[in-house]
Amino acid sequence: LHRNAGETEFHQAVQEVLESLGRVISKHPEYAEEALIERICEPERQIIFRVPWVDDNNDVQINRGFRVQFNSALGPYKGGLRFHPSVNVGIIKFLGFEQTFKNALTGMPIGGGKGGSDFNPRGRSDREIMRFCQSFMVELHRHVGEYTDVPAGDIGVGGREIGYMFGMYKRLTNRYEAGVLTGKGLSYGGSRARTEATGFGTVYFVERMLATTGTSFEGKRCVVSGSGNVAIYAMQKVMSFGGTVVACSDSDGYIVDENGIDLALVKEIKEVRRGRISEYAELKGDGVHYVKGGSIWDVPCEVALPCATQNELTGADAKTLVENGVIAVGEGANMPSTPDAVHVFQKAKVLFAPGKAANAGGVATSALEMQQNASRDSWSFAKTEERLAQIIHSIHDACAETADEYGAPGDYVLGANITGFVRVAEAMRALGVV
Ligand code: NDP
């Protein structure tokens, strides 16, 4: 603990994985040899740097940039960049650690990494965002590359930010290296369906999980937290599968619309105006209820999809959801449920899809973007979405089969942790002590 002092979220993520590994080590003691578990918990490299930039008032601002290159046994480091004031080394390390197993679950040749900055994009002008992204890339470009480390978006980093960073990378290196970043715009090497992939994938996973008990999204009442990239496209896919989304949120509060969320309006507010979810209630008027603060999990539902941030769903929230009759929970965000909450769901036999399996559709589609870039190709939306659905179904089935094999049927947490771990461990053993 003293080696990683104060890194609360990192401790939480490591503990969650280690708790699943007892069964695999008793069956395969070779995975504990040569300090493999200790090596897997130690990032290969951590980069922390100063990001100076000039705001619109001509004042100099200083932020801190991070890139944690966690594990490259399976391929180049791959994982998003997060711009949010809460970012610190412990958060980036938890995300990079989770990413390593998530990427292994996709079955694609990608290692794990994560990065970002404590920069707060809220209220910043487009020019400020551009100057920040450029300054961030002035340092980051030394550490990334198509064969080294391939960042993408995360909280606070979408198509606009990736564009500004790619522009600066291209200028600094004098190389049109499309495969250095994913989540690019369609006009310069992006993949169709990447924007939608994480949210869509989460819903594909939950649909397959519901099917194991003979049910589906059809007619189900759903609550989705957040209203960013993952939440918006999760809502869209729930609706296309016949479910009704009655509530969504941002960090200020949540809205409840019993007629079903008007997704076109959410997209207009969040993607075009970059506004707040409270504006939905102002624009819709009657029948919409806005709650400032509070917990969105108080809204009764059958399927809950936390798609905002880590530890947003507590043990108390989980109890409320169970009392209100929730049957399935799918994590679109990374580690949104606290350990207490996961325990409550599992005890109540609620179908529970952990983020590292359920939200892997985003990174899987990023790997498809790398594939298209490498072959100078561009696939149709339908073809890309079909590949995404296949990948998610195979992740679901691998997790379910592993859970069965290890005597814990229906435990997707155990299934995901063991499947991901075994894939990384096999490669690390083959590569020797490096
Ligand atoms: P966005 O920035 O697009 O949206 C984030 C949403 O979550 C916003 O509605 C935001 O509200 C809300 N939010 C953020 N922080 C908090 C907080 N501390 N408390 C309450 N609400 C908060 O990010 P994404 O949709 O891309 O990411 C959401 C989650 O999904 C993250 O956990 C991310 O790691 C995970 N994820 C994302 C992937 C991707 O492809 N984008 C891939 C896999 C996982 P506000 O606007 O008020 O800040």
Automatic annotation (TrEMBL):
Keyword Transmembrane helix attributed: no
Domain Glutamate/phenylalanine/leucine/valine/L-tryptophan dehydrogenase C-terminal per the UniProt entry, residue ranges: 191-432
Cleaved signal peptide residues: none
Origin: domain of life: Bacteria
Catalyzed reactions per annotation: L-glutamate + NADP(+) + H2O = 2-oxoglutarate + NH4(+) + NADPH + H(+)
One GO molecular-function entry: glutamate dehydrogenase (NADP+) activity
Site (Important for catalysis): D154
Record keyword Nucleotide-binding present: yes
GO cellular component: cytosol
Chain ranges passing through the membrane: none
Binding-site list for NAD(+): T198, N229
GO biological process, one term: glutamate biosynthetic process
Residues holding substrate: K78, Q99, K102, G153, S366
Keywords: NAD, Nucleotide-binding, Oxidoreductase
Record's function text: Catalyzes the reversible oxidative deamination of glutamate to alpha-ketoglutarate and ammonia.
UniProt xrefs under NCBIfam families: PRK09414.1 (NF006929)
Annotated family: Belongs to the Glu/Leu/Phe/Val dehydrogenases family.
Alphabetical list of PANTHER family matching this protein: NADP-SPECIFIC GLUTAMATE DEHYDROGENASE 1-RELATED (PTHR43571)
Quaternary state and interactors: Homohexamer.
Protein name (Swiss-Prot/TrEMBL): Glutamate dehydrogenase
Organism per entry: Maritimibacter fusiformis
